[in-house]
Amino acid sequence: MFEAPVEDTETEPSGFAAIAQADQFRQEPEKIRLWREQQKQMLEQKAIEAEEKQQEWREIARKELEDWCKHQREQLEKTKETNRAAEEAFIMERDESVPGHEWEKVCRVCDFNPKMSKNTKDVSRMRSILLQLKQTPLVR
Q1: Would you state the pLDDT for residue 138?
Q2: Contact 21, 13 (CB under 8 A)
Q3: 138 phi and psi, to 5 degrees?
Q4: Best exposed site among 23, 41, 94, 119 by fewest CB in 10 Å?
Q5: What is the DSSP letter of 128?
């Protein structure tokens, strides 16, 4: 039987290994090698600086986000307090029952400014009746 000779890769170089050896023998000029090293160092330095700058921006963004959240919470608390106070005043005003002041309560709810309602129906007669009832309530 015919057996193919087995190449020993350690003793006999293959075709690609021979090319690699030839490349090693033919070296780059010194200036090009120095330029490549300088470029590599410069790129590494720029990468480090970019990473530091990115970290700095993230820190600034985190602080601004915390400040914004804190401000939003404060605004929300102030709004809640204002709404609670307004609600309490509204409930006290609504529940007070002084005889003869019913029409004053109705007039507080109504808008009597005719300039603000341009595109609505004419309610001047209704407005005048409510104002008249406010000034001289009905007596039973």
Answers
A1: 73
A2: yes
A3: -70, 145
A4: 119
A5: H
